[in-house]
Every structure is written in C-alpha cells, then in structure tokens.
Amino acid sequence: MNELALMTTDEARSALDTARIAVLPVGSLEQHGPHLPLDTDAAVADALARRVAEGLGDEAVLCPLVGYGLSEHHLGFAGTLTLRPATFMAVVEDVITSLHHHGIGRVLVVNGHGGNIDALRLVARQLRRDTGVMVASVMWAVLAADVAAEVAISDSYGHACEVETSVAMALFGDRVRLDLLDQPRERRSHDEMTDPPRGVVDEPVWFHEWTTDGAIGSPSAADAAGGEAIVDTFVDRAVAYARRMVDRPIPGMT
User: Is the pTM for the entire model greater than 0.85?
Assistant: First the structure.
C-alpha cells in the first residue's frame, strides 16, 4: 500500500506518478456516548480508508487523516472539538489542491462523520469547477445503509448506537468500553421529520436535545459480526466505485 505519510519525498514522487487516485480519510473529534472514544469517526475513517487503499493497490495513494470536522451539534458534551465550515472546507480543499499539484486528478474521500457530508459536497463541486479534479465522498453509513438497517433494532439510530458501535467493535474492538454499554439513558424525539436515520427536514438539532448521554439507539445490542458485515460491504462497494472512477476519463487529464 502506498501510504504517503511514511514515504520519503523520492518514494512519494514514484508513488504519485503511478497512482491514479488518492484516498483521503476525514473524520471528527466529538463525543460518542459513554462507551466510545472521542476519535471514533476519525478512527473509523482511517481504518476504512486503509482497507480501500489496499484493495486498489498501486493505483491508489493513501493520505494522512484529516481528524477534525464539523461537530458543533455535539458541543453540549465534553471533549468535542469542532472546526467552522469555512475552515474545514479550506483544509480539505487545500489538501486536494496539493494532490492536484502533484498530478493526482481523482480523490476518494472516505468520510467517517455525517456532519461533514454537506461541506464535502460543496468542496467537490468547487474543485471540479475550479481545477477539474474529480472528488467523490463515501461514508459507510450511507454506502452500506442497507446492511446497517439489518443490524439496527431501534427506530432511531445513527450515532454511538448499535450500528456505529458494531462497526467500532469490528475495527478497534479493544477500545470499545463494553462495561459501559448497559447504562440506558433518556432518549428524546425532536420531531419525527428530523430524527435520524430517516429525517427528511433539514433543521439543526443539538445532540443533547435527543439524548442525555450522547448516544442514540441501543448500543448494548451492538455485535462485532454485524459490524464486520457493514465494513466488508462498504469496502467492496467503495473499491468498486473507485475503480470505475479511475476508468472514467477526465477532460484534459490522464
């Protein structure tokens, strides 16, 4: 695997000359209930990006993780650190612009945090308009939503729930606080049209308006096997998409 951070500049030059796509993991640092670490989204994104890059082989170069994201809706819980949208978008855009400078015309962003989705869409549109670089973003909870729904037992899920906790168990189970899973706290509905995962109205809701412990759903029902099914599905679909992306010509680029 071509891991950019571990290379010398000469090794990077060779890898970048060979690679046809860069894989960029993007996460966040935010509360994940009483049982998951603050860097869950970042750790998930990094682990999944590594698997995707491995699947793509020499056609891909793996970039270092962008570990901060848009998490203002989690600031009601201690430890959450967030960027402003303009800052986050500028960081991602600058990283991808740098890759473009070195000859990379396609970037697959492996996103671990739902709060980043809208900003990443805008970055991709701006970069295609201004530079011609093709940027696609994939998130496990979206790309493998059908498998996640099979793991879920709750009507409302999507954060530090049975689904995300299952994914964490599959990727870094030693960091999941199993001793704290069986501590039910109050869950609240904000509105049936905004509650995850089927919210259809876009209204900012702070997480402490949904839950007293930072989690939603039923994390005690998490299962490593279910997490592995989600992970495997995501990686297979992301790799397949990236290969199609590599095969599509970009006007004026190779």
Answer: yes
